[in-house]
Amino acid sequence: MCPELTRDHIPKARDVGHFLSVTGTVIRTSVTKASFEQFYTFAPPTSCPNEDGDAPPAACKDYQEIKIQEQ
Fold first, then answer.
1. Domain ranges of the chain
2. Which Gene3D superfamilies does the annotation name (predicted)?
3. Which of 30, 42, 55, 64 is most buried when burial is the number of CB atoms within 10 A of its CB?
4. pLDDT tens digits for range 25-64
5. Is the pLDDT score of 21 beyond 60?
């Protein structure tokens, strides 16, 4: 394994945006969700839910939470 992609401990904030390899046992997963705080496209709504109807289109990113147990 490449040392640039592997960590001995839980990834830190400095690892955000980098591809990492982790080893562990998956103990829980969630369904795919949409994160409106991110600025990546996701299926936009067909109509504007805003009462005024002039809101800019929402930008969001899909993600999935996976909980793992370290080995």
1. 1-43+57-71
2. Nucleic acid-binding proteins
3. 42
4. 889 888 776 665 555 555 555 655 556 655 555 555 567 7
5. yes
What pLDDT score does 68 carry?
Answer: 85
Residue 7 pLDDT exceeds 70: no
In angstroms, the CA 58 to CA 42 distance is 9
Residues 16, 22: Cα–Cα separation, whole Å: 14
Q: What is the 3 state secondary structure string of the chain?
A: CCCCCECCCCCCHHHCCCCCECCEEEEEECCCEEECCCCCCCCCCCCCCCCCCCCCCCCCEEECCEEEEEC
Give the whole-angstrom CA distance, residue 55 versus residue 36. Answer: 14
